[in-house]
Inverse folding.
């Protein structure tokens, strides 16, 4: 009996983490000519006006001081809403075939302490259609606190990586080769991919938290991640407003690396415009992720 995932009945050719999508011939041929994700990277750098979002966060924290909502939490929800509304952003190419995930997922790295030698933990987050920024803030804060509270005791993918790294090099190389082969055919055991950021819709890096600018970060051939986003610091910048006046606004630079095989430049540009719209109208974040933003694409 075919398994039903999020209301979709799996068919022949589907993977456990995504359903196979029929794409135009050009995309199919492109996936064969450039089978590696790193061969198909396209880079995007932009500056977001986050003045209203910063005010939104400040108001949230005044109204609910017991819950620390951050700009980063808002970005997670904004990107999740964008992917929900722009489903091609939730696609990936593996085994020279195109798939669309059954769910949206966001992964990021949490520094266990702000120290040069402090270790990092990989966090994998799956927002639900009914989630709002308040739900996401609570879940992210709880997840980060739990990881940092564990100290050197690791679980999940972090613990698995440490154990694998301790193996003799020839054995580790053989295991990695087998895993890459399984990944190509979509047969990688879930125990290896659960919580792995390389299998997330968006891999997000908050460089602003360490006072660094946004950068371009490469994709990886392993896994299914097709979108990598970095966030820089929030800073003041004088901008020309629609009415011709000049104002000092709060802005934030973002860098994104995408797999061009999942969409075209026009689709990516519209997706970016939606992110701009959400930043300028942050009240949208109080509505469920699965609810349309109301953005006019025309």
């Amino acid at each position: 009996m075919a398994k039903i995932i999020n209301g979709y009945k799996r068919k022949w050719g589907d993977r456990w983490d995504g359903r196979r999508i029929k794409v135009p011939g050009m995309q199919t041929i492109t996936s064969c000519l450039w089978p590696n994700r790193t061969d198909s990277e396209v880079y995007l750098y932009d500056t977001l006006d986050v003045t209203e979002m910063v005010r939104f966060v400040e108001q949230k924290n005044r109204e609910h001081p017991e819950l620390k909502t951050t700009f980063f939490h808002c970005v997670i929800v904004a990107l999740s809403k964008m992917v929900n509304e722009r489903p091609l952003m939730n696609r990936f190419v593996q085994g020279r075939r195109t798939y669309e995930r059954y769910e949206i997922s966001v992964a990021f790295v949490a520094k266990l302490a702000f120290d040069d030698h402090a270790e990092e933990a990989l966090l994998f987050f799956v927002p639900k259609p009914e989630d709002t920024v308040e739900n996401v803030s609570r879940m992210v804060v709880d997840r980060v606190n739990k990881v940092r509270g564990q100290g050197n005791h690791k679980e999940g993918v972090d613990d698995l990586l440490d154990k694998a790294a301790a193996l003799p090099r020839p054995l580790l190389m053989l295991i990695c080769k087998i895993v890459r082969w399984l990944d190509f055919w979509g047969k990688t055991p879930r125990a290896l991919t659960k919580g792995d950021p390389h299998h997330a819709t968006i891999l997000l890096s908050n460089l602003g938290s360490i006072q660094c600018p946004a950068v371009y970060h490469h994709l990886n051939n392993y896994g299914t991640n097709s979108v990598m986003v970095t966030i820089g610091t929030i800073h003041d910048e004088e901008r020309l407003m629609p009415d011709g006046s000049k104002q000092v606004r709060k802005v934030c630079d973002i860098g994104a690396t995408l797999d061009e095989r999942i969409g075209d430049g026009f689709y990516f540009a519209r997706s970016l415009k939606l992110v701009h719209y959400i930043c300028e109208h942050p009240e949208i974040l109080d509505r469920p992720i699965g609810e349309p933003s109301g953005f006019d694409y025309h």
